[in-house]
Design goal:
The complex is a heterodimer of chains A (404) and B (316). With 404 residues, chain A is mostly helical. Chain A is 65% helix and 1% strand. A two-stranded antiparallel ribbon of chain A has the order 1-2. The N and C termini of chain A lie far apart (54 Å). Chain B has three domains: 32 residues; 249 residues, no CATH class; 35 residues. In chain B, 52% of the residues lie in helices and 1% in strands. In chain B, strands 1-2 form a two-stranded antiparallel ribbon. Chain B is elongated. Chain B starts with 5 loop residues before the first helix and ends with a helix. Chains A and B meet through helix 4, helix 5, helix 11 and helix 15 of A and helix 1 and helix 13 of B.
Chain lengths: 404, 316
């Protein structure tokens, strides 16, 4: 039993019971961050802010949304958009944040790849991050079903069909997932549950894991330099703030985080109020109609690259390529055989690999939206093969890399 | 001190973001959707009105030899509809419009062409081919014995003389005359037979709904399918598409049963305003709130930058 004394202040009362001073040090003032970083290191905080916006706006939308195939569409487009005070604002914040969060995730991912932040003890940061990517994808997809518009319905149809596994004809599995032969009431209800409960819980758990995975290996830096955090933090605490290679998370790094967040929010709210169409597909403003297939069915922009890896091939090969694309990023720490944790710019062939992968994914993204005809099909096929080829050569080119 | 690479990194991030945006939004949509330029509701394929009409003579023709009031109401001039909307739809497929507002909703040259040859002006000759005995439900005007062009110009002049002028024509009136007999707008409580009233007794509400369903059955048989509810077409189609579609539906959907509506440019703007009121109701609030939020967030960003500079002064 711990020994408690009469508290000298409210803070002391809490400190004796919750060790708030210690917690503050561990989480904030003595959580050490390397100084040699740039604004890309603030993407984590930008993601936290965006996720919070999604959560808060989602709570408000949840108060009025009705998960019923007869009323879902109008509960969004009439009740929330017209009847509820500022309902339109919550919806546009939610819709735009759902799209922008993926832009930031991709920037965050490619930052990690560029600086080798998945290596030498940082593997779990990468893996938990990729699990978060999967969870966010499931969250985005399930949320997209809820307004029950034409794209909700037909995207639901196409994506659940993938589980038939091509020639395996696992139609029973597809029906089990849908709870019906076609997307209908059971389907909408379960995706509603996934969107507002199960997947958000998983995301919050994974965010905890992602942060925890960061504690021991510490944050990477622009040069992949191994820093003696104990020695550098002592230097800092002794007063040599300028000479130390590290800084406090709060307020030192937090100040930079907030600066980036401030600039990001200008961009974000500009989109919310003046340029939201890109995140809210016009086709989804037609109510779901199982008898009327839209002329073009395409996923939201952040899924286009993987959709395009599925599309140029025959059914079975396409599904295998698609499955490959879904899991391969998780294996990056093990496919990269080089011992170097340095920026891609100093890693020879890997530098070319990095930019080729980035450009290839943008090409795949563009082709995934365009109708699969003529030159677009050919470009899509080449880009899909390039994507697979790049992953196959990765272990070889990184193996050849010299120790820096 | 090392060279600051952040501006270069930011430029690279922004560059790839913009390229991706351009490819999946403007470029992809330009490839997926046909682009149709508006003609400004000029109806260049139709002949110009050559005669100056006289409203007084036109009134006699419209009420008399022209035969308009056999089918059309002109409530403004005290002429009630010869039959109710449901019966009219059962007879003609769709309820013929009340002509009270026709003079300010439709283009004058369109009206003149319509009176002479409805199927041609409406661009539904693929559906109503007189040589095959497929007659358009509106009977063409064959002349009242004088100069036919003059007679038509007189009738158009009369319709213009009784029609509301300028702002007297509300967005709802424009929508009801031009679109509302085929297209419901349930966000505005509009049905093809009129605005649904609030009934005290449930039976009365159900009786009204039954009438709407009966009307819709006739309309379905006439058009091939029930024309869509336009509640949020402003979000699903956008202003440009709606305007160019209304101007000439055949441009986008070859062979569609939807007629060319023949609205003039002012009435088209009113229809758009009505659709914005129903499907983008909070647009003014959005713009006003948007400006305030932008000002707030820019001030927030300035303080965040100043705070960072202050904290980091000791770190270098």
């Amino acid at each position: 039993m711990a020994h408690f004394t009469k508290a000298t202040s409210v803070k002391d009362w809490f400190d004796q019971r919750l060790a708030i001073d210690k917690v503050e040090k561990v989480m904030m003032s003595e959580y050490w961050i390397p100084k040699n970083i740039n604004f890309l290191w603030a993407m984590g905080m930008v993601l936290v802010v965006t996720f919070t916006l999604l959560l808060v706006s989602g709570i408000f939308l949840l108060m009025y949304y009705q998960p019923n195939v007869a009323t879902a569409f109008d509960s969004v487009n009439y009740t929330i958009m017209r009847e509820v005070d500022f309902g339109w604002l919550w919806r546009h914040v939610h819709g735009v944040a759902a799209s922008v969060v993926f832009l930031i995730i991709y920037i965050h991912m490619f930052t990690g790849i560029y600086y080798g932040s998945y290596k030498k003890g940082r593997e779990m940061i990468w893996i938990s991050g990729m699990l978060l990517f999967v969870a966010f994808s499931a969250e985005a997809f399930s949320g997209y079903m809820l307004p029950w518009g034409q794209m909700s319905y037909w995207a639901g149809m196409v994506i659940t069909n993938l589980f038939a596994g091509g020639s395996l004809h696992a139609d029973g599995l597809v029906e089990w997932i849908r709870g019906d032969y076609v997307p209908a009431q059971a389907f909408l209800n379960r995706f509603f549950m996934l969107h507002v409960l199960l997947i958000p819980l998983a995301i919050m758990g994974l965010i905890g894991l992602h942060f925890a995975a960061l504690r021991i290996p510490h944050v990477n830096n622009q040069d992949g330099e191994e820093i003696d955090f104990d020695a550098e933090s002592k230097k800092y605490l002794a007063g040599d703030k300028a000479g130390s290679k590290v800084m406090r998370f709060a307020n030192d790094f937090m100040a930079k985080d907030m600066m980036v967040v401030g600039i990001y929010l200008i961009f974000f709210f500009y989109l919310v109020f003046f340029h939201y169409d890109f995140a809210m597909d016009p086709v989804n403003f037609d109510p779901a109609d199982g008898l009327k297939t839209p002329a073009h069915i395409y996923p939201e922009w952040y899924f286009l690259w993987s959709y395009e890896i599925l599309r140029p091939f025959s059914t079975n090969i396409g599904l295998i390529a698609f499955a490959f694309a879904q899991v391969i990023f998780v294996l990056l720490p093990f496919l990269d055989r080089s011992p170097n944790t340095t920026p891609a710019s100093r890693r020879g062939l890997f530098k070319i690999w990095f930019w080729a992968m980035l450009v290839d994914m943008i090409v795949l993204t563009a082709m995934g939206k365009l109708p699969p005809e003529g030159i677009f099909s050919t470009i899509g096929l080449v880009a899909a093969l390039t994507f697979i080829g790049l992953w196959i050569v990765l272990p070889f080119i990184t193996k050849m890399e010299k120790k820096a | 001190m090392k060279q600051n690479k952040e501006p270069l990194i930011l430029a690279i991030v922004v560059f790839f973001t913009i390229v991706t945006y351009y490819l999946v939004e403007p470029f992809a949509h330009s490839q997926m959707h046909k682009h149709v330029e508006s003609e400004g509701f000029e109806y260049k394929d139709l002949p110009e009105l050559t005669k100056k009409g006289d409203a007084t003579r036109g009134k006699d023709l419209v009420m008399g030899a022209g035969g308009c009031t056999g089918c059309h109401a002109i409530t403004k001039a005290g002429m009630p509809a010869p039959m109710d909307a449901v019966t009219a739809a059962a007879s003609y497929g769709v309820n013929p419009p009340d002509l009270s507002n026709a003079g300010s909703v439709y283009s004058a040259k369109f009206l003149a062409s319509l009176i002479k040859n409805p199927a041609h002006a409406l661009m539904v000759e693929h559906k109503f081919d007189a040589s095959k005995g497929q007659m358009h439900p509106m009977v063409p005007f064959y002349g009242a014995g004088g100069d036919m062009d003059q007679e038509v110009a007189d009738m158009v002049a009369y319709l213009e003389s009784i029609a509301p002028k300028g702002e007297e024509l509300t967005p709802a009136m424009a929508y009801e005359t031009a679109c509302g007999r085929c297209h419901a707008n349930h966000y505005e409580k509009w049905t093809q037979i009129g605005t649904k009233p609030t009934f005290k007794k449930k039976q009365d509400g159900l009786a009204f709904d039954t009438k709407v369903l009966d009307y819709q059955d006739s309309l379905k048989a006439y058009m091939g399918k029930l024309p869509p509810d336009l509640s949020i077409y402003i979000r699903s189609r956008g202003e440009h598409y709606i305007k160019t579609f209304v101007e000439n539906p055949q441009n986008y959907l070859k062979g569609t049963a939807m007629p060319r509506v023949g609205v003039n440019a002012e009435a088209a703007d009113k229809v758009i305003e009505y659709l914005e009121d129903s499907g983008d109701t909070k647009r003014h609030e959005r713009e006003a709130v948007g400006m305030n939020v932008m000002i707030y967030i820019i001030i927030f960003a300035i303080f965040a930058i100043l705070w960072k500079k202050q904290v980091w002064r000791d770190l270098h």
